UniProtKB/TrEMBL annotation:
Organism: Streptomyces xiangluensis
Protein name: Prenyltransferase/squalene oxidase repeat-containing protein
Signal peptide: 1-26
InterPro entries, per the entry: Terpenoid_cyclase/PrenylTrfase
Record Gene3D superfamilies: 1.50.10.20
Length: 415
């Protein structure tokens, strides 16, 4: 929930899990044409068509998390993107025009906006309308897909859970017309213990109904199972009992989080990072998903296992973040926050400053660095592939929607 992440989130291929559905990855959105100037309040300089609201929401939430007061123009831009229904589309070039049936609103943009607006405060009405819309499009199985009515997926369900919690709702009490809760939807997307990747989460079932472990979806699923959003604190030490349990009362949200976090711990144990799911780049590191995994591991109480991927990010994420933009900086800030790491000296990089410089002027570091900013250290950079959570080009197949959600990135299958 990130998110799936890896938002930056995320346009390349299936995403956030095979996300055909929702989340596809994209190395970097194309630059807007010279004739189309970007809004002054928007974070980032690349085409916002598929991820404008997503990256804006993550950027504002990250600034708030580190004690920064965002520029008013940035907050106003996000609020102005909302449709009368309460939903948000990835980007509306002309927010003065009313949304209609052709406006491709989605659950991920809407849920991310809710998390940001609730954190900033003063926007309860807008957040409330957004949550009401999310409830109105809940699937019968208790979950959500990227687009209203689309098949439920782990990433979308989890980011909506984060929005519900941020708004004061109890996810277990948000029931669909079929009487199912979001947690029941996640349970159905958990890979059975006796199968490869048991305990992990799949993005969605494949055409035969089988579930394949997906690291990005698992990071999102862990946070969703814990009832957490993008910003969370380090959790209590993981339980010592079995990491995986199937069926009946044995499978609780806590068990789901434990099994998912155990899978992630194993996935990053060797190299310290998760690998890309993009064709031809399978041996390249996926920085965004790795950042999401750090958050999920720490939130689940696996702080020891989160240390290695966190150290890898501190050493190797500079060029990726610079290329990917505000959502990437936000993901790194979330990882730093959850692990108690200083985001103003993350491997020698001031993430707060870098994020602020990618957005409009006028932000105020209210809790700031009176100390001399540290000089950026020389570091080895593992080029890798720039991958955010961009979205749902998969949905496009069935609905004609392109979606970029996280970071939180959705690809499948993922190790």
């Amino acid at each position: 929930m990130k998110i799936r992440r890896s938002a930056t989130v995320l346009a390349a291929t299936a995403v956030i899990g095979a996300a055909c559905a929702p989340v596809a990855l994209a190395a970097e959105s194309p630059s807007p044409s010279p004739s189309k100037a970007l809004p002054s309040g928007l974070f980032g300089s690349t085409d916002p068509t598929y991820d404008g609201v997503w990256r804006q929401s993550l950027a504002l939430l990250a600034q708030h998390t580190v004690g920064v007061k965002p520029a008013e123009t940035a907050v106003d831009w996000l609020v102005g993107q909302q449709c009368e229904s309460g939903a948000f589309a990835p980007y509306r070039a002309d927010p003065s025009a009313k949304c209609d049936a052709k406006t491709l609103v989605d659950t991920n943009s809407t849920a991310a906006a809710v998390q940001a607006l609730e954190a900033l405060g003063g926007h309860g009405a807008a957040a409330g309308k957004a949550v009401a819309w999310l409830k109105s499009v809940q699937n019968k199985d208790g979950g959500w897909g990227y687009a209203a009515g689309g098949a439920s997926d782990t990433n979308s369900t989890s980011v909506v859970i984060g929005a519900l919690v941020a708004s004061g709702e109890k996810p277990q009490q948000v029931l669909s017309k079929g009487g199912e809760s979001p947690y029941q939807a996640l349970r159905a997307l958990s890979v059975p213990c006796d199968e490869d990747g048991g305990g992990a989460f799949a993005f969605q079932p494949d055409k035969k109904g089988n579930l394949a472990a997906n690291a990005d979806a698992t990071a999102a699923g862990v946070l969703g199972s814990l009832g957490k959003g993008f910003v969370t604190e380090s959790g209590k030490a993981a339980a010592e009992d079995s990491a995986c349990a199937d069926g009946g009362d044995k499978f609780t949200p806590e068990v789901g989080a434990r099994g998912g976090s155990a899978y992630l711990a194993s996935a990053v144990a060797k190299d310290g990072y998760l690998k890309s799911a993009l064709a031809g780049a399978e041996d390249q590191p996926d920085h965004g998903n790795t950042a999401d995994a750090v958050v999920a591991l720490a939130a689940a109480g696996r702080t020891t296992e989160s240390a290695k991927p966190l150290a890898w990010l501190e050493k190797n994420s500079r060029s990726w973040a610079a290329q990917s933009g505000p959502a990437a900086y936000a993901q790194l800030i979330f990882a730093a926050h959850t692990t108690g790491t200083n985001p103003r000296d993350f491997g020698g990089v001031d993430l707060v400053k870098q994020l602020g410089s990618s957005g409009p002027e006028g932000w105020n570091a209210t809790v700031t660095d009176t100390a001399e900013p540290s000089k950026e250290k020389e570091q080895d950079e593992d080029g890798g592939v720039s991958v955010w959570w961009i979205i749902g080009v998969g949905l496009v197949g069935g609905m004609g929607i392109g979606f970029l959600i996280s970071s939180r990135n959705k690809k499948q299958p993922k190790q």
